[in-house]
Design brief:
The chain is mainly α. The chain is 77% helix and 0% strand. It has helices spanning 2-37, 40-48, 51-72, 80-104, 114-133, 135-139, 153-171, 175-183, 186-205, 221-246, 255-279.
Length: 280
């Protein structure tokens, strides 16, 4: 009888933690995705962007959420099956949040075609689902993570890619980014690139943010720069190329124009990558 009671209490406690995680997921989806839900370019992209690219973004988000769930799911996961469950829940939260907010803003109407409705919801659900998954990391309490997980090198790079992608989704669809890329010269692009690298390294290793990384006295200064900062910037640039391609921002641009556009988007992407190392 005692064992059954203890088991029931454990199940109830686990269910309670999961429900709490869902609540954090909804709040975090709104917190992180609301700027994109209220951005005009994102409304139009859901209508006219190529459906194969939208489908690719939707599909790529699934393994991203699974791996992210294994790191910071709605509750502590011990298997990839649990992580996959959390990823499905996060995507569901992202879709539901997108529907509710877009409908409340009058952006989903009965006279729209099914393609436009699905396109708008599918596009907005990607950042909303990532935001939902980040809920445990950002809106949880300290008791949720009494044991800190050691992060392998490849996972560090992956988490930086997640941060870069999230900020890229905010900036890549906007016209302002393309205007900046058009007005900048090669020298401007070089300065932005160097500034991006310097800020990435400084945010994580120099300014002592909570979650930052301090180098031991025995570690040479260039070790973290070569091992993490430079590869992280390459990841941010690769994510920027992907985001620009998916949102059809490259078009018939010349190689120089593409390079400048990638560096411009790489600036917020690099900050997103650095932020991911701090918070995840």
């Amino acid at each position: 009888m005692t064992d059954r009671t203890a088991s029931a209490e454990d199940d109830q406690s686990e269910f309670s933690r999961f429900i709490t995680g869902l609540g954090r997921g909804v709040a975090s989806a709104l917190f992180f995705a609301l700027p994109m839900l209220m951005t005009m370019e994102m409304w139009y992209l859901g209508f006219y962007m190529a459906r194969e690219r939208l489908l690719l973004l939707f599909i790529l988000n699934i393994p991203l959420l699974v791996v992210l769930a294994h790191r910071i799911g709605f509750e502590k996961t011990v298997s990839w099956r649990d992580a996959a469950r959390d990823a499905v829940v996060a995507y569901g939260i992202g879709i539901l949040t997108s529907i509710i907010v877009l409908a409340a803003l009058g952006l989903l109407r009965g006279d729209m075609s099914a393609s436009e409705l699905i396109g708008k919801i599918a596009l907005q659900s990607v950042p909303a689902s990532i935001g939902a998954m980040l809920g445990r990391s950002q809106l949880g309490n300290e008791d949720d993570d009494t044991e800190e997980k050691a992060t392998p090198y490849h996972s560090e790079l992956f988490l930086m890619g997640v941060g870069a992608l999230f900020l890229s989704l905010n900036i890549a669809p906007t016209d302002e980014m393309m205007v900046l890329a058009y007005k900048m010269t090669i020298w401007h692009a070089l300065v932005v690139s160097l500034l991006s690298i310097a800020l990435m390294h400084g945010l994580v290793y120099a300014v002592s943010f909570i979650g930052g990384h301090e180098l031991s006295p025995e570690t040479p200064w260039w070790h973290a720069f070569v091992r993490f900062t430079l590869p992280g910037y390459v990841v941010a640039l690769a994510v920027s190329v992907l985001a620009l391609w998916i949102f059809e921002r490259l078009g018939d641009s010349s190689a120089i124009e593409i390079m400048v556009s990638v560096i411009v988007l790489g600036f917020p992407s690099a900050l997103g990558a650095a932020g991911a190392r701090l918070i995840l």
